[in-house]
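[Discussion] Sanity-checking designs against the backbone

I'm trying to build intuition for which residues belong where. Below is a structure token string of 129 positions. I'd appreciate it if someone posts a full sequence so I can compare it with mine line by line.
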């Protein structure tokens, strides 16, 4: 029975550079049906996270002004909470209980290695419980 989040995290995950046009990022989040994606620098380092919630301001502006403007850098959250790949299910589950986030970037040795979405952990807990 796997009990570490690296067994259930998504290793093939959507990510954005700060220069990605915001309309393109919103479209990607919607197409992939994910609530959030990490924002990474050229070196692969984690710079922040872009959530669906972050996308409402540019989407509403685009609706009103009939045009999209800006990049991911203009809208992403630079303060991001992360989980460690070695964290166990209970620790990760408690993070979802304690905070309103739907997904967490997962780090190993300070390097971004995956994304853990709330539904993926819940499914693993259901399967293992």
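Best answer:
Here's mine. Compare freely.
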């Amino acid at each position: 029975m796997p009990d570490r989040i690296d067994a259930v995290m998504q290793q093939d995950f959507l990510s954005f550079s700060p220069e990605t046009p915001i309309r393109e990022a919103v479209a990607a989040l919607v197409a992939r049906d994910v609530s959030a994606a990490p924002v990474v620098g050229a070196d692969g380092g984690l710079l922040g996270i872009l959530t669906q919630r972050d996308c409402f301001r540019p989407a509403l502006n685009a609706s009103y002004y009939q045009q999209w403007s800006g990049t991911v850098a203009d809208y992403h959250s630079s303060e991001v909470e992360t989980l460690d790949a070695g964290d166990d299910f209970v620790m990760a589950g408690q993070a979802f209980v304690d905070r309103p986030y739907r997904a967490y970037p997962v780090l190993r040795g300070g390097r971004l290695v995956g994304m853990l979405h709330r539904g993926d952990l819940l499914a693993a807990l259901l399967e293992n419980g």
